[in-house]
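Appendix B, Record 12. Input sequence as logged:
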Amino acid sequence: MRVSAIAAALALGACATASAQMAPLPMALCAGWQGERTCELLQEDARIRVLRCTFQPGVGHEMHYHPPHFGYVLEGESTMRITTADGVVDRPVRAGGSFSNEREIVHEALNIGDQTMTYLIVEKKYEDTRAAEAIAEGLCVSD
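Logged structural output:
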């Protein structure tokens, strides 16, 4: 009896963890900072979405998700504070730098430096596996 109760508790915990990982979040375009958008849509088709995101000093990007994507730093040299489920990391970034992620990324970002940062982000919409009910409208609610 005791073993089955422990197994049931573990199964419930696993379900709670799985649903917490897919909690509704806005996509990068619809996330912002203190009610203001930080990204603008430059191009979108059935396969990709291209964003330009600008972060002045002290401005960030609330918790959001990206499908697999590529990013390029267009301008600025600063430090971005990245918060994920694994913790907080301060990353120095500067114009000409790039990054890519081949899986969904969930994070919050904050420009803790003294220069404005501008990024170009190319998201692979065709690899977005997030269920529709797990996507929050965020600041796109008024679109």
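The helical segments are 2-21.
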